[in-house]
TrEMBL record, chains A, B, C:
Family: Belongs to the SAM hydrolase / SAM-dependent halogenase family.
Domain S-adenosyl-l-methionine hydroxide adenosyltransferase N-terminal: 2-160
Alphabetized Pfam families for the sequence: SAM_HAT_C (PF20257), SAM_HAT_N (PF01887)
Top-level taxon of origin: Archaea
The protein's name in its UniProt record: S-adenosyl-l-methionine hydroxide adenosyltransferase
Domain S-adenosyl-l-methionine hydroxide adenosyltransferase C-terminal intervals: 193-271
Annotated segments matching region Disordered: 115-142
SUPFAM superfamilies: Bacterial fluorinating enzyme, C-terminal domain, Bacterial fluorinating enzyme, N-terminal domain
Keywords from the UniProt entry: S-adenosyl-L-methionine
Length: 277, 277, 277
């Protein structure tokens, strides 16, 4: 199985699917095509929270503001999973969730050794000659999802995730770009954290572990007292509450409304929770 | 086959797909991930109009404003189809379309008997311990799509829709929440109805059966005379018309434009159609 | 394999998928459901750029402002691919990319000979009787994606793309609507072209072949001097640049921003590029 995640919108993911289908019969599953644009940290969060629910898979990830620069294309083997994407840190948080950090193995893609991606029957197409007359290899400079990451994901699926060493264009990575999603500072009765992402419902998801709310009926969130709910329905529709979300973190939400608007929060904002009872 | 419909946006449906893929090789087909947020009635309409085009399937439906409350998780067997979703009425209109009402069989899910959904390799994840230390069972309080409905849909697919009785956590439902989409009041030359939904094109879809328009060249819609068209192209681009839509109901549309804006209509608005000729 | 592309938004594509699944076990791949609404030219561009990356497939395309008029339903055999959609030109540019123009074969669908599309179990549904009592055949007048194109695509997949002649409702097309995406006028140091589309990133994609930029460090774009980049990262985030995009054409972009806004460009706008160095 190959999962596909990007910030591409439409229809660029279809070109990646075409390339995948050219090279493998693997089952394809869409994870997202609308991660916040070029937001490596948000993508890293969502991948960490979603991919562990999949059976062993090859995960194709393209959130890649540095496309075309000298940033590497990376493969990370994490337990029975393989992650393919840019070396900008987006793969690290999920990799560490999928397998112990000491067991992770990272590989760099030598793009010059990749077989070029060829559209069919396009003698007249300008992209048919892209990169053919320079030394930059077979890839366009702006769409490595199609030209690099999809071919590598297909090859990994076909070779088997245990046999990454058999792919001649992969070599062990000396060093990779890391990305750590910040941890909240939790002490007795006080948690200093951060809004990591806002989901499509408007729930402001923090990095404060849900256990902090245990036994609380109300909590001060950035100084304002807000009810703690077991469920959204603990408060009336339109009312604010603090809740343990499905990722296990504290969220600032509104029952049937948008928590980000009601609390005035966006990703990256600091949040202090205090148990004043 | 398992179809997937929700109001989740992105990327929550991917977590459901991961759970499904963990437990079954069933073909997965996306119906929608963007039903109007927490709008049980709109979802009920769309499911009623779309799901009957599928071959016998298990249909996973999550539009669930009451998630985490004591509302039941429900399975409805409707002919060769099975519907899985919250007991808030969203499943009823499509169930009655798929099979005679007297033949429908409903089952309640005993959530405490469900095998927990476990992400892989996540010793460090706060969600790994969600609900482990209380009596509420293995589910989060905010994401039953992932923790309850997806596992049940996978199990039904594996057991076979004829063998729901073999699933120990299902028991016949005594009573279920019903939802009736309203019928229009049609008499000679006058129909009093309602806008049920507005589609993505801006077509305002009513509950007035299309037969009402038979033989009409113009119709008064809330008092304004509007042409009746066989096709959108019966009027110039940008012009309003009344038409029989693909669901068989009267729609108030604009050729290559938005009917909802042009007629000033939103779901729930009353609409009176009069044949004044 | 059947690919699916439309401007439908949600959830209409699901009805097409249901019909496809009723009639074939073909693998279904979503190309797009959000092509610019009723914009035949934009869809023609995207299909031309994306579908050639797929292996031989049947491609279902519905961008159809003339639905229900006497425009034909069309099948085009282009090499090992088959394209199914309205005869409004949307299929022509990709067909010419997939195979030499002289080898293309076009067929008209005789809709009156199509087996009707029946939802299951819907005695009470008004759409069950759509078109049953008139001479217009089995299709609704507004949703030929479900009632005409999907059934034809499924039948082509089942019959084999080499055996279109075996489908009794297909007959060779005498004439078809053509659509030519305009070519840029390129002479030494000057290119007069057009913005064909703006992608979801805001990149304004022109029809000027990328080779025009060879050796340029800066270019005058509609009179303003802009840097030419090999990659987005050639300029600072938020800065404008001109680049060869992944389709091989000149694009007017902003690194990590929207080129259409920064350059004030929308599809159809003229663009003059001049090498003043």
């Amino acid at each position: 199985m190959i999962t596909i995640a990007s910030d591409f919108g439409s229809p660029y993911p279809a070109a990646m699917k075409g390339v995948l289908c050219q090279r493998t019969d693997a089952r394809l599953v869409d994870v997202a095509d609308d991660f916040p644009r070029q937001d490596v940290r948000a993508a890293a969060f969502w991948l960490r929270e979603v991919l562990p629910y999949f059976p062993p898979s090859t995960h194709l990830v393209v959130v890649d503001p540095g496309v075309g620069t000298d940033r590497n294309a990376l493969v990370v083997r994490a337990g029975d999973h393989a992650l393919v994407g840019p070396d900008n840190g987006v793969l690290q948080p999920v990799a560490r969730r999928l397998a112990p950090e000491t067991s992770l193995e990272s590989f760099v893609v030598d793009e010059s050794r990749l077989e070029p991606v060829e559209p069919t029957g396009v003698a007249s197409s300008p992209q048919a000659t892209l990169g053919r007359d320079d030394s930059s290899g077979p890839a366009s400079n702006t769409f490595h999802g199609r030209d690099v990451f999809a071919p590598v994901a297909a090859a990994i699926h076909e070779a088997g995730r245990k046999s990454l060493e058999s792919l001649a264009y992969l070599s062990p990575a000396d060093e990779t770009v890391d990305l750590e999603l910040p941890d909240a500072a939790v002490e007795d009765g006080r948690a200093g954290g951060e809004v990591l992402v806002v989901d499509d419902f408007g729930n402001a998801i923090t990095n404060v572990p849900g256990a902090f709310l245990e036994g609380c009926e109300r909590i001060a969130a950035n100084g304002e007292l807000v009810p703690v709910g077991d469920t959204f329905a603990a408060v009336e529709p339109g009312e604010r509450l603090v809740i343990v979300g499905s990722h296990g973190y504290v969220e600032l939400d509104v029952n049937q409304g948008r928590g980000d608007d009601a609390f005035g929060l966006t990703p990256g904002d600091q949040i202090v929770l205090e148990d004043r009872e």
